[in-house]
From TrEMBL:
Residues 572-589 have a biased composition (Gly residues). Pfam families: PilM_2. This is Competence protein A. Residues 742-757 have a biased composition (Basic and acidic residues). InterPro entries: ATPase_NBD, FtsA/MreB, PilM. Residues 534-590, 680-713, 742-768 are annotated as: Disordered. NCBIfam families: pilM.
Length: 768
């Protein structure tokens, strides 16, 4: 198997260096151990006369002389008492907010400035519902930066590149959850009120004991300041012997001359062990009352001390799980080795490190400083960066060589047929200078021509421009309906008794206003477009005629009066209903928006022809502004001669898109005072009808009885409106030019059609 897939887990203990190398099997599910090492120090690191740095350095040199670590991921452990572990339950919040909560908790629970520590965290257990984390626990782990650098210094001095730094209790947790608990239960299936049984794990070292309580998901740990060395010190002190002899006696207590005396001497340490462990268990059960303590697991070479396992089991009331193999670890050569089997219990930490390095462990926190990770990434990228730069330089070199021949042919001294580039370039520059001179003269002449054209346009167009507004007013006047009974004299005064107001087809105009737009698309908002669609929709005609007699469609903006509202008055900068400008299909470019406010009385319920209210307005004035024509002079009058009159369409004049922007209800009760009314008596009372001739709404309480020949008021149902349309003026000569061009195009098309018809007549086979 490739070495690049191998990982080393190195545990620097107090009395020995333990190392285990593992890889993933071909199925990437099984862990295979293919190498190990166990190097015992000449002295225990905690002894006063021991040189800790030198002993570790010598052990690493010996390790490197017997093993290859290049290309492997290396993980190391640090003692549990050197770090800090805290566990807390975050509130049910969005999972994305967990890092912010952890950072806040880190500031509260780590008793040092965060810049002075290396820390990491991991969410443990819990479920996630709709992005919210429930019943989860967060483990926060930290270590002072100076202690981390002190721990990894022997590795950096030995040239070993570390990938992971982990606390020893967490290595034990990874081993237990993977090997003894088969990966642990599914966190989402755990009932918080009835969690699975927890194991108590004792990793008994030389100076300290790491106590870990876990059910495979949750974890709690504490470092107890008692270890195997305390038994040795007790024997040395009580039996008055050297440390070396006491250590030998401890390991071979059953073979001593008086085993009973040896165990009697060590009993106080046994009692202290039980007391500390029981105190820790009671504390844990107080903070987590749902936890059920199950069995006891003991690891570490101190466990081989005769009687320790039985003593703790009896006094703690817990059954002991005897660890005599790593169940999920393969590797026959390693597992069958006598030295590995003898020190099996000491390899639990190294095994847990390998599990994390192979990404199969439950906990994956890492206390390796970020600068080490960054430097390694840069180092790994350097070869690729150098290779990329080299490839680019090589490509440039080849490109230069391939194009060198072409470059040589454009050198100034290169000659072909007796002409070199230098002389040819000089000739071209001379010709270019002459060309530039001619172009300058051409631009000057063009500007002069444009100036004269503009002057001619002013002279010729002045007469046209002064007619534009007169033509507009004539067009509006021609679009107004005319009473056929008074066609000969439309301004004649009509007797209301003979021609009732409600039968008159006239449309009365109150005012005509205008506003200029640099771009008429600003006026053509979606609201205006919708009104244009209303007046253009032929279906609406039938709908309107089926309405209640004389009733107009509901106004778009009831109560809105352009004369009072600047936003609808073109003369005051308005004329644009709310909406985004520039709707599709409308006018663009400069032009005028003309607004007309008026009213009509053609609102009788018996008026079938032309309709009433809004319908009558649309069928008369609006329709004429859309499709009507107006007779105008074809040319300006010369020498007093009357010019020929020509019919121009509204569109030819530039009038387009007439819309009703204010559509009011019909005032059915509106009346106009009869100026010829004769009161019943001279002493008749003042009826408060207002100014003479003024139309007033009818007040039934104030009406004086009258007969049909002498009415006091005339019924005049009144419909008021405001319309707008776009006028992009076309001067007289422009209209004539457009019309002449259209006539020529039509004549050419007719000639072409006639020629094709004659050709088909002369060639019967070519006909259809």
């Amino acid at each position: 198997m490739a070495m690049s897939n191998a990982v080393w887990g190195i545990d620097i203990g107090q009395c020995a260096l333990k190392a285990l190398r593992c890889t993933l099997d071909d199925d990437e599910k099984s862990i295979v151990a293919d190498a190990y090492d166990y190097i015992e120090y000449p002295k225990i690191l905690s002894q006063p006369e021991a040189n800790r740095e030198e002993l570790i350095r010598d052990a690493l040199e010996q390790f490197l002389s017997r093993n290859e670590v290049r290309g492997c991921k290396v993980a190391m452990s640090v003692p549990g008492q050197a770090g800090l572990s805290r566990f807390f339950k975050p509130p049910p919040v969005d999972a994305k907010l967990i890092p912010d909560i952890v950072k806040y908790e880190a500031k509260q629970q780590i008793p040092f400035p965060l810049e002075d520590v290396v820390w990491d965290f991991q969410k443990i257990g819990g479920t996630e519902v709709d992005g919210f984390t429930l019943d989860a626990e967060v483990g926060l782990f930290a270590m002072k930066r100076e202690q981390v650098f002190r721990a990894i210094k022997p590795f950096t001095d030995a040239g070993i590149e570390l990938s992971i730094v982990q606390l020893a209790p967490l290595c034990i947790y990874n081993y237990v959850s993977y090997d003894l608990l088969d990966g642990g239960p599914n966190p989402e299936e755990i009932d918080p009120d009835n969690p699975p049984e927890s194991l108590v794990v004792l990793s008994i070292g030389t100076e300290t004991t790491d106590l870990v309580i876990t059910n495979g998901v949750r974890i709690w740990q504490r470092s107890i300041p008692l270890g195997g060395n305390h038994f040795t010190k007790q024997l040395s002190r009580e039996l008055k012997m050297t440390y070396v002899k006491a250590e030998h006696l401890k390991r071979n207590a059953r073979q001593a001359e008086d085993p009973k005396t040896v165990f009697q001497v060590m009993r106080p340490v046994f009692n202290d062990f039980v007391t500390e462990i029981q105190r820790s268990l009671n504390f844990f059960q107080n903070i987590d009352r749902q936890t059920k303590i199950g069995r006891l697991v003991m690891i570490g070479n101190t466990v081989r001390l005769p009687g320790l396992r039985q003593y703790l089991s009896k006094n703690l009331g817990l059954d002991v799980i005897k660890v005599d193999e790593f169940r999920h670890l393969k590797g026959g050569e390693v597992k069958s080795s006598p030295q590995f089997h003898e020190n099996l219990l000491a390899y639990a930490g190294s095994y847990g490190l390998c599990l994390q390095a192979l990404d199969v462990a439950n906990l994956s926190t890492n206390l390796l400083p970020q600068e080490f990770i960054t430097n390694r990434l840069i180092r790994e990228k350097k070869p690729w960066a150098v290779a990329a730069v080299g490839a680019v330089l090589l490509a440039f070199s080849f490109n230069y060589l391939f194009h060198y021949g072409s470059f040589a042919k454009v050198e100034p001294a290169y000659a072909n047929q007796g002409v070199d580039w230098r002389s040819a370039t000089s000739t071209v520059d001379s010709v270019q200078n002459v060309s530039t001179s001619f172009k300058g003269e051409q631009e000057t002449l063009k500007k002069t021509r444009d100036h004269f054209v503009a002057m001619g346009e002013e002279v010729v167009g002045a007469g046209d421009r002064k007619l534009l507004w007169l033509e507009l007013y004539r067009a509006i006047n021609s679009a107004l309906p005319v009473d056929p009974r008074f066609a000969e004299n439309p301004t004649a005064i009509r007797d209301p008794m003979k021609v009732p107001y409600l039968d008159r087809p006239d449309i009365y105009i109150r005012y005509i206003e205008s506003q200029y737009f640099e771009d008429t698309a600003r006026w053509w908002t979606p609201a205006i477009q919708k009104k244009w669609e209303e007046v253009s929709d032929q279906k609406s005609e039938g709908d309107a005629e089926g309405e209640d007699a004389g009733a107009a469609p509901p106004p778009v903006e009831p109560g809105m009066d352009p004369a009072m509202d600047p936003s609808m008055d073109p003369s005051m900068g308005g004329g644009q209903p709310q909406g985004e400008p520039g709707a599709a299909g409308g006018p663009t470019g400069p032009g005028w928006v003309i607004e007309i406010r008026g009213y009509h009385f053609h609102n009788s319920s018996t008026n079938v022809e032309g309709g009433s209210g809004y319908t009558y307005l649309r069928n008369t004035l609006i329709e004429q502004l859309k499709k009507g024509t107006v007779r105008l002079p074809k040319e300006a009058a010369v020498d007093g001669r009357e010019p020929a009159m020509v019919e121009y369409t509204m569109e030819e004049l530039g009038i387009r898109f007439p819309v009703v922007v204010e559509n009011n209800d019909i005032e059915h009760r509106f009346q106009i005072k009869n100026e010829r009314y004769v009161p019943p008596s001279v002493a008749g009372r003042n009826d408060g009808s207002g100014e003479d001739g003024a139309g007033v709404p009818r007040n039934d309480a104030a009406v004086v009885p009258d007969d049909g020949s002498n009415p006091q008021r005339f019924d005049a149902p009144k419909y008021e409106f405001v319309i707008q349309f776009c006028w992009q003026e076309k001067r007289l000569h422009e209209r004539n030019e457009i019309r002449e061009a259209a006539e020529r195009a039509k004549a050419d098309a007719e000639k072409a059609l006639e020629a094709e018809r004659q050709a088909n007549a002369g060639n019967p086979e070519g006909g259809n």
